[in-house]
Design a protein that fits this description.
Chemotaxis Receptor Methyltransferase Cher, domain 1; Rossmann fold; seven-stranded mixed β-sheet; 9 strands; 46% helix; globular; disordered N terminus; binds S-adenosylmethionine
Length: 288
């Protein structure tokens, strides 16, 4: 029987020793900003043991060494660690804020046909950027008067493939009205509905890492960035890096929308806090 099948990877009797678990968590933290530790042992062990099995490594130590030299395996491990929870029309009041306050403000300095770039980072399986597209089509009368570009980005390359495919189950669709589901999704098959082709093509997906300035800045500058439900997984140091990178990725006068538990003091040091009727958001100063 292989070590993996026996589930006995270390002399401590635990599948993964405390030291090995710490090394793996440090690796994931350095690459992603996500903080894991002993208290998440069950979550971590299941994923690492699965990756060791799949990669054919002889031991946990051998697998840790492999991670440092094999970028594909590092990507697979990171993909397995990410928490991809999301759904359509999550925190809809921010979409309302986009249509009622943010875009009306941005277009005061634009002409008809001008480009407006919106980033959903992290976008997970696509529900957030597709929600932005659907919400604007449904509610923003000027949607055709401007060239709106929507980009979805995430560190998890596997979940981005799902986003491009655009198949969704009931859990993802629960907040959408029957009418919207009927008009924007194909008929149900195997408990899933596929987003219609026109909508799938309206969003471009690119992988990027919010704590890696080079990969983030390769996406270009944006007028609006939705960065929701990611910073909660970070510690202060990673949050500071992420906020600095968000700032750099915004055009002067551009807006950042965070999840409702993420309105941090740190944002207000760099950004102007703007209290619109539907949401509190953060703006890079117009002359900034
Ligand atoms: C909980 S989902 C949030 C999805 C969506 N924004 C929402 O609020 O519904 C968190 C996502 O963050 C991504 N993620 C984790 N670390 C990241 C990083 N360093 N850069 C970019 N995305 C990251 C994960 O892959 C995951 O898909």
């Amino acid at each position: 029987m292989s070590e993996t099948a026996a589930g006995d990877f270390s002399s401590s009797g635990m599948p993964i020793s405390a030291r090995e678990l710490e090394d793996i968590c440090n690796f994931v933290y350095d690459r992603t900003g996500m903080l894991f530790g002993e208290q998440k042992r069950y979550y971590i062990e299941r994923r690492v043991i699965d990756r060791i099995t799949q990669s054919g490594s002889a031991s946990v130590r051998a697998y840790i060494s492999m991670l440092r030299t094999d970028s594909r395996e590092a990507e697979r491990l990171i993909n397995s660690f990410t928490i991809n929870e999301t759904y359509f029309y999550r925190e809809e009041h921010q979409l309302t804020c986009l249509g009622r306050s943010i875009l009306p403000d941005l277009i005061t300095s634009r002409g008809a046909g001008d480009k407006i770039r919106i980033l959903s980072m992290p976008c997970s399986s696509g529900e957030e950027p597709y929600s932005i597209a659907i919400w604007l089509l449904e509610n923003w009368p000027l949607v055709d008067a401007y060239n709106i570009e929507i980009i979805g980005s995430d560190i998890d390359t596997a979940i981005l493939r799902d986003a491009i495919e655009g198949y969704y189950g009931q859990r993802s669709l629960a907040r959408l009205s029957d009418d919207i589901v009927k008009r924007y999704f194909e008929p149900e098959q195997d408990m899933q509905r596929r987003l219609i082709g026109d909508l799938r093509e309206s969003v471009t997906f690119r992988s990027a890492n919010i704590i890696d300035r080079a990969s983030f800045s390769a996406l270009g500058k944006f007028d609006v960035i939705f960065c929701r439900n990611l910073l909660i997984y970070f510690d202060d140091a990673a949050r500071t890096t992420a906020v600095d990178n968000l700032y750099e990725a915004l055009s002067a006068g551009g807006y950042a929308c965070l999840g409702h538990t993420e309105s941090m003091a740190r944002m207000s040091q760099k950004f102007e806090t703007v209290r619109f009727a539907d949401a509190i958001v953060f703006r890079r100063a117009r002359g900034g």
